[in-house]
Design a protein that fits this description.
Blueprint lengths: L8 E4 L9 H16 L3 E6 L11 H11 L9 E2 L4 H13 L3 E4 L11 E2 L2 E2 L9 H4 L7 E4 L5 E6 L3 E6 H4 L3 E4 L7 H12 L3 E5 L6 H11 L5 E5 L1 E3 L19 H11 L12 H11 L10 E3 L3
Parallel strand pairs: 1-2, 1-11, 2-3, 11-12, 13-14
Antiparallel strand pairs: 4-7, 5-6, 7-10, 8-9
Helix pairs in contact: 1-8, 1-9, 6-7
Length: 302
């Protein structure tokens, strides 16, 4: 259950698939400045629920990089790999209420489904039961019913958003064929448990927010505020990531923080900070999310 009081609380939640890079730093700076400017807490969560993708040593590198750039979290880092019992309990609650069903569909069978923002819209093949689709089918995943209602919310940068989950996404997966819990279930459970009131992250996750709000409502937990910032991409328009060869943070941490600050359209300091401490002493009171341009993505400055 979530804490009774919702004190201001933000979080940064990297996946340990590689070292911290500039795109990650942009999201971290925005999240940290936003939480501290509100006088709130800031939490660090390691999203390692997808164990096969986690890279050995990446978590230590991420934590060290954050510390070098002056980030200070208000509780020990929360690791999703230690919280599978909580995700199982949430899934059991939804199943007991008739909101979850077994699915036997394979990826190949769904390749012809319609698309929304690059994701497949599930056509509801197994909604009436696996046996109704084809004899001797076996369960591969568990999906949540989304119904026909549209999910609306107001993002603090991108404004009013609305998505009809049924035609856009369809009933989405909560537990995968390999047994691992899906990202959306894990983050909703963890945000509620940690008392997160404000989620600040990259705009690549804007389209997935309605799924998380649907889960929050289904589990009867609070919905935080959302603020999505422009996604840092390379010159080919690809999201910065280890897979795309994004360079890990190196060099002067203060210079990297200033570059992220500029990327976020924040006001330049009159006197250039020369240390990490000086940067944060300036940045927290100067934070103005209303200045962030409504860009889904933008290239990293050379």
């Amino acid at each position: 259950m979530p804490p009774a009081a919702r004190t201001p609380c933000g979080r940064f939640a990297p996946s340990p698939t590689g070292p911290l890079h500039f795109g990650s730093l942009v999201a971290a700076v925005a999240s940290y400045a936003d939480a501290r400017a509100a006088g709130g807490r800031w939490l660090l969560r390691i999203e390692d629920v997808d164990a096969p993708r986690s890279v050995r040593g990446a978590e230590d590198a991420i934590v060290a990089a954050l510390a070098a750039h002056g980030f200070a979290w208000d509780a020990p880092p929360l690791r999703q790999s230690t919280r599978t019992a909580h995700y199982a309990a949430a899934l059991a609650q939804l199943a007991a209420e008739g909101q979850v069903y077994a699915c036997a569909c394979t990826r190949r069978e769904l390749e012809t489904a319609s698309l929304d923002d690059g994701e497949s819209a599930y056509p509801g093949t197994c909604r009436a039961g696996i046996e109704a689709t084809r004899a001797r089918r076996t369960q591969r995943s568990l999906r949540i019913l989304v119904g026909d209602a549209a999910i609306g919310f107001t993002d603090r940068v991108f404004g009013a958003q609305r998505q009809a989950l049924g035609p856009a996404i369809g009933d989405f997966v909560l537990q995968r064929a390999d047994g691992w819990f899906a990202y959306h279930l894990a983050v909703v459970v963890d945000d509620a448990w940690s008392g997160v009131t404000s989620v600040v992250r990259g705009a690549d996750l804007l389209a997935s927010t309605p799924r998380q709000i649907h889960l929050q409502r289904a589990l009867r937990v609070p919905t935080p505020e959302y603020l999505h910032v422009p996604l840092a991409v390379d010159r080919h328009g690809r999201k910065l990531s280890k897979q795309q060869g994004a360079a890990p943070l190196a060099g002067d941490p203060c210079e990297a923080l200033l570059a992220a600050w500029t990327f976020l359209d924040q006001p330049a300091p009159l006197a250039r900070p020369r240390t990490v401490a000086q940067f944060w002493a300036y940045a927290v009171p100067a934070w103005q999310p209303s200045r962030i341009a409504i860009d889904r993505a933008r290239s990293v400055p050379a």
